[in-house]
């Protein structure tokens, strides 16, 4: 027997899967195909390739590769410093980074092993054999029990249900936690036992692995199922969708690269100047070859250009420490260690799910403080994705809290005219019958609603049905016409105890109204529209009585369609369409998806922080708009601009509709008088967006996208409804690629949000009820939307300030370090004589100055966390990368140059006194360099102490401990503590230096002079701000906050005055009523939608 996938004849590139590894015919030659095993691999390295692969990736960094070249030059060329001075810091950086990346990859290996080593049951020789998941092969018959996750992609053969059905969730595929019904192949439905299914001899023809998520399932519920493995391991749909994840880079890293280029130019300039002046100096024969140091014959015969190049490389080596290679490892450690503070935050711990925040990518911590646009899903993100039945409308009568409310559109006669039952009974029968709800006993399923008084759980293919079927003749269920996103409705065909055949249907109003008697619509439509405006999810209910002849025809057509091997879905849809025609409308239901706790306050805070929030949802416009008002995305004073399919109208060519976007630009020019006192919001749907983003190739509408984008950027908030997952990513990409490259953040809770989460600069996953694919693919995961407030306003703010200070400080202290070395060349004949000892050169960035800045970058709080969270406008003070702009960078550079000059010339003037000791002895060049180095270490460390606003015991320990360690090391290296170091050139230099009172006075005086400008600037001007914000003009930011309007909910009376529309002439379509919608209170400040562009006649 041969089982084929529907439509397989039209596909190219197929594979043949032998069920149970038994060939169909013993006479036919069978060549076993080779398929990959079922191991999941998300790790980057193995034990064998870790070293070469990691080294290759690390040396792709410019700074690492540069220091490698410098190290090789020191080894090959006779340079003034030892290769150890650059080789040891480079080795330290490479080692620490490798350990960090190796640890993170080990965590991925461990996560893979949890999946690969999990136990599964495979049917072999008519019995079940337990194996590890990674040992599943294509063709194995796998049994999956209730509440187990599918270990690979399976073809459903049989289940424990007699009708061959099973219920699965696809939360990790498409983000939907509702249950879907799957049917086994008719020929294998009866193979329920291990013996029966082991006797099956069949092959399966299916396509080669494709990353199509919407043809798979994830988790089995309510029964046992047997299936044959067709795709395993890295060929499964899940694995194919998670490969090729792009690497995200932060704005700080880009600033570092820009600053690095500047300092590289400074390095080249210094080396060029010294090389040039050396040969100018040596143009005098006495300077070039003094009598006491004659050149050898080899030196005289050396080619001059080669000598000049060698000298240039020697100066490059001498000054190479101006490039802070150790900054990279410090940044890596700061990001890695700093990410734990997010995970440890108790305020972001959720008691309901017993989980806190999760950091998947520590490289983007500082980006949390630079977000300009927030893109958020609605269902499950802003709302709880927990449905509650609110009210229903039956034949125009509204029923709520057991009270029937009658309005002007209601019929007052009791029973319906088209059926001999009361309207209430018929409506409730429709709800009780038209669903796929089942009761599961004993087990509790995540994300589903259970009864506390019973150990039962409702499971269904729709979360709305669980809310509706909580209320109750026996009926015989004949057929279920399943729900799908295209039809947007479902139906059941039942037989009553009296033999009557009924079809009950429920679905969205847009799919039910065209299929019922038109005279029945108006009385229900009023309630549907009003419920949608109130933010409720609505469903319409209809029915139809079938004759036996009509039912036989439908039954025959359904069976034929189910057995079709080609175009099965299209044929089924055609039967459904014919069966669901000419129905009678009974009524409608309203179900509420409640807002998450503090979601409105969070959006308000994000607005106040200067961020623009866009809601991207698949819900209908009315429901999404009402939710946006409830969560304060739109204020009652917000003027709304609408671009929806309803306002586009019908047109033969897409270009005709796109042409109306020209009016969009005209209206925009008319509304140039927009000011911050008036807020504007935009509403657009998916079909209209596709016309803008994907015009036909012969269209001359290429500039429409830019016009649309300009309107979006002018609006305070944007609502995009009826959006497909791909369109969400397109929107994020469009904004991300605009001028200025604004930092974007996407937040969602389902796998259908993964595309926009991966597209944005920062992706946030909500640990909600729609599976965990969003949180697994995100950079950060939080339990609730409300936690976004602290994550951005507090953690993001502090991380950015810390790492920006770290970067500027590293460049500053290395300039202070190398500038005296450069100046020293003017006093030693450009002979490449080092000013500092090799040990000091090596230890400066590794030991003496590394820990204080690391502790600062982890613990600093220049503003209290509670203040940051309660005052969102503080977020704008660091926006647009304020602390890493060229103005603060130049300030740090000039500060480093000033202090370097003070260090060198201060000690130089001290040495103008030929005798610095009582006994008349003079100090040598190593003493000169040691005094400069001592002033340097103390100054840059105390500079950091002045910048510290939040002192802890750790700050005290590392700052004063680093200074103490420097003194201890100098005594140790000078042979005072360790006498065996007598022979080296620094013997007793440091101890001898401290015997001079003049040296003590000079050190203290030079430190004070160096830090005096800093004391004046920060501690007398703005003691509560970081350095970059204290500079004149340092807080100039183009972003500004927009005053929030009244917080009154639409539909409720408000005392705030209604905002006047902009002063421009606009044409309104007939759909835009000049009077308030029905039911709108006259005192409400609900603005009318302003139709622009498509709607203009």
Automatic annotation (TrEMBL):
Q: How does it sit in the membrane?
A: Multi-pass membrane protein
Cellular component annotations (GO), alphabetically ordered: endoplasmic reticulum; plasma membrane; recycling endosome
Record field: catalytic activity: ATP + H2O + phospholipidSide 1 = ADP + phosphate + phospholipidSide 2
What positions does the domain P-type ATPase A occupy?
118-238
The record's GO molecular-function terms, alphabetically, read: ATP binding; ATP hydrolysis activity; ATPase-coupled intramembrane lipid transporter activity; magnesium ion binding
Pfam families, per the entry: Cation_ATPase, E1-E2_ATPase, PhoLip_ATPase_C, PhoLip_ATPase_N
Q: Which cofactor does it need?
A: Mg(2+)
UniProt EC number: 7.6.2.1
Subcellular locations according to the entry: Endomembrane system; Membrane
Q: Which key words tag this protein in UniProt?
A: ATP-binding, Coiled coil, Magnesium, Membrane, Metal-binding, Nucleotide-binding, Translocase, Transmembrane, Transmembrane helix
UniProt keyword annotation of Transcription present: no
Q: Where is the P-type ATPase C-terminal domain?
A: 776-1017
The record's annotation in Gene3D superfamilies points to: Calcium-transporting ATPase, cytoplasmic domain N, Calcium-transporting ATPase, cytoplasmic transduction domain A, HAD superfamily/HAD-like
Q: Which residues form the P-type ATPase N-terminal domain?
A: 32-86
Per UniProt, ATP binds at 377-379, 465, 483, 506, 537, 617-619, 722, 728, 752-753
Superkingdom assignment: Eukaryota
> What broad class describes the main subcellular location of this protein?
membrane
Membrane spanning stretches: 59-77, 258-281, 312-331, 889-911, 923-945, 957-981, 987-1009
UniProt record, GO biological process: phospholipid translocation
Q: Which residues form the active site?
A: 377 (4-aspartylphosphate intermediate)
Where, by residue number, does Mg(2+) bind?
A: 377, 379, 749, 753
**Coiled-coil regions in this chain?**
544-571
Q: Which PROSITE patterns match?
A: ATPASE_E1_E2
PANTHER family in the cross-refs: PHOSPHOLIPID-TRANSPORTING ATPASE IG (PTHR24092:SF38), PROBABLE PHOSPHOLIPID-TRANSPORTING ATPASE (PTHR24092)
Q: What protein name does the entry list?
A: Phospholipid-transporting ATPase
Q: Which organism is it from?
A: Otus sunia
């Amino acid at each position: 027997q041969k089982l084929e996938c529907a439509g397989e004849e039209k596909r190219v590139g197929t594979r043949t899967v032998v069920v149970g590894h038994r060939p169909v015919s013993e006479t036919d030659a069978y060549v076993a195909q080779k398929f990959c095993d079922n191991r999941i691999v998300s790790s980057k390295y193995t034990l064998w390739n870790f070293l070469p692969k990691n080294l290759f990736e690390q040396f792709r960094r410019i700074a690492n590769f540069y220091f490698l070249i410098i190290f090789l030059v020191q080894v090959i060329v006779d340079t003034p410093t030892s290769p150890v001075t650059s080789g040891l810091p480079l080795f330290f950086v490479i080692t620490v980074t490798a350990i960090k990346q190796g640890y993170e990859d080990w965590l991925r290996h461990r996560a893979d092993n949890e999946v690969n080593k999990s136990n599964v049951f495979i049917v072999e020789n008519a019995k079940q054999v337990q194996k590890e998941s990674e040992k599943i092969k294509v063709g194995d018959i796998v049994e999956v029990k209730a509440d187990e996750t599918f270990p690979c992609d399976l073809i459903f053969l049989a289940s424990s249900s007699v009708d061959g059905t099973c219920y699965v969730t696809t939360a990790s595929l498409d983000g939907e936690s509702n249950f879907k019904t799957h049917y086994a192949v008719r020929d294998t439905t009866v193979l329920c036992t291990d013996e029966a299914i082991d006797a099956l001899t069949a092959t399966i023809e299916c396509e080669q692995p494709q990353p199509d998520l919407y043809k798979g399932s994830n988790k089995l519920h309510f029964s046992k199922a047997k299936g044959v493995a067709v795709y395993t391991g890295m060929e499964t749909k899940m694995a194919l969708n998670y490969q090729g994840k792009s690497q995200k880079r932060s704005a700080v890293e880009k600033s570092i690269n820009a600053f690095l280029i500047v300092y590289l130019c400074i390095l080249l300039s210094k080396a060029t100047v010294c090389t040039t002046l050396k040969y100018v100096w040596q143009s005098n024969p006495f300077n070039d070859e003094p009598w006491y140091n004659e050149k050898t014959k080899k030196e005289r015969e050396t080619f001059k250009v080669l000598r000049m190049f060698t000298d240039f490389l020697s100066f490059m080596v001498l000054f190479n420490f101006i490039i802070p290679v150790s900054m990279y490892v410090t940044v890596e450690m700061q990001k890695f260690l700093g990410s734990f503070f997010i995970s440890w935050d108790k305020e972001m711990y959720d008691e309901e799910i017993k989980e806190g925040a999760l950091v998947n990518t520590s490289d983007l911590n500082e980006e949390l403080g630079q977000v300009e646009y927030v893109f958020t899903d609605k269902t499950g993100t802003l709302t709880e994705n927990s449905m509650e039945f609110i009210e229903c409308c039956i034949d125009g009568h509204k029923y709520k809290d057991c009270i029937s409310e009658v309005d002007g559109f209601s019929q007052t006669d009791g029973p319906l005219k088209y059926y001999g039952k009361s309207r209430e009974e018929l409506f409730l029968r429709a709800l009780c019958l038209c669903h796929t709800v089942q009761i599961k006993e004993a087990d509790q399923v995540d994300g589903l609603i259970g009864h506390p008084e019973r150990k039962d759980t409702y499971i269904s293919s729709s979360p709305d049905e669980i809310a509706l079927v909580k209320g109750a003749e026996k009926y015989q269920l004949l057929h279920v016409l399943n729900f799908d996103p295209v039809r947007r409705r479902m139906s059941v065909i039942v037989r009553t105890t009296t033999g009557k055949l009924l079809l009950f249907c429920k679905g969205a109003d847009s799919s039910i109204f065209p299929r019922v008697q038109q005279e029945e619509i108006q009385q229900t439509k009023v309630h549907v529209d009003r419920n949608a405006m109130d933010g409720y999810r609505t469903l319409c209910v209809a029915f139809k009585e079938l004759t036996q002849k009509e039912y036989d025809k439908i039954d025959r057509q359904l069976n034929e369609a189910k057995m079709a091997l080609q175009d099965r879905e299209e044929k089924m849809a055609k039967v459904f369409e014919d069966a669901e025609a000419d129905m009678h409308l009974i009524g409608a239901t309203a179900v509420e998806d409640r807002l998450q706790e503090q979601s409105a306050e969070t959006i308000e805070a994000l607005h106040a922080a200067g961020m623009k929030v866009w809601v991207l949802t698949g819900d209908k416009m009315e429901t999404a708009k009402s939710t946006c008002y409830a969560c304060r995305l739109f204020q009652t004073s917000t003027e709304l601009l609408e671009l929806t399919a309803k306002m586009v109208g019908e047109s033969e060519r897409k270009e005709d509709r796109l042409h109306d976007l020209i009016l969009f630009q005209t209206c925009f020019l008319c509304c140039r008088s927009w000011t911050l006192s008036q807020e504007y919001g935009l509403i657009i749907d998916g079909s209209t967006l596709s016309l803008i983003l994907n015009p036909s190739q012969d269209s001359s509408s290429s500039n429409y996208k830019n016009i649309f984008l300009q309107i979006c950027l002018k609006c305070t908030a944007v609502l995009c409804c009826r959006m497909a997952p791909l369109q969400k990513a397109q929107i994020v990409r469009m904004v991300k690629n605009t001028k200025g490259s604004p930092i974007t953040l996407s937040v969602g809770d389902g796998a259908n949000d993964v595309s926009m989460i991966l597209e944005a600069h920062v992706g946030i996953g909500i640990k909600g009820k729609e599976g965990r694919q969003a949180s697994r693919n995100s950079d950060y995961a939080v339990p609730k939307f409300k936690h976004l407030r602290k994550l951005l306003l507090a953690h993001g703010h502090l991380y950015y300030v810390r790492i920006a200070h770290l970067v500027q400080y590293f460049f500053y202290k290395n300039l202070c370090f190398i500038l005296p070395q450069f100046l020293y060349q003017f006093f030693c004949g450009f002979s490449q004589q080092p000013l500092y000892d090799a040990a000091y050169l090596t230890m400066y960035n590794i030991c003496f100055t590394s820990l204080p800045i690391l502790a600062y970058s982890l613990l600093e709080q220049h503003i209290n966390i509670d203040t940051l969270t309660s005052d969102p406008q503080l977020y704008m003070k660091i926006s647009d990368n304020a602390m890493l702009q060229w103005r603060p960078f130049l300030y740090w550079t000039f500060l480093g140059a000033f202090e370097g000059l003070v260090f060198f010339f201060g000690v130089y003037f001290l040495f103008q006194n030929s005798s610095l000791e009582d006994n008349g002895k003079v100090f040598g060049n190593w003493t000169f360099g040691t005094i400069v180095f001592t002033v340097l270490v103390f100054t840059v460390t105390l500079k950091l102490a002045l910048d510290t606003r939040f002192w802890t015991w750790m700050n005290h320990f590392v700052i004063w401990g680093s200074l103490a360690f420097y003194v201890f090391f100098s005594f140790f290296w000078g042979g005072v503590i360790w006498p065996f170091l007598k022979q080296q050139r620094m013997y007793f230099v440091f101890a001898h230096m401290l015997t001079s009172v003049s040296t003590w006075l000079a050190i203290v005086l030079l430190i004070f002079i160096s830090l005096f400008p800093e004391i004046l600037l920060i501690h007398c001007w703005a003691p509560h701000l970081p350095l970059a914000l204290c500079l004149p003009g340092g807080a100039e930011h183009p972003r500004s906050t927009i005053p929030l309007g009244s917080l009154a909910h639409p539909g409720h009376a408000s005392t705030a005055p209604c905002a006047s529309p902009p002063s421009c002439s606009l044409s309104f379509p007939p759909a835009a009523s000049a009077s308030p919608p029905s039911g709108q209170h006259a005192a409400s400040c609900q603005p009318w939608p302003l139709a622009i562009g498509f709607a203009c006649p």
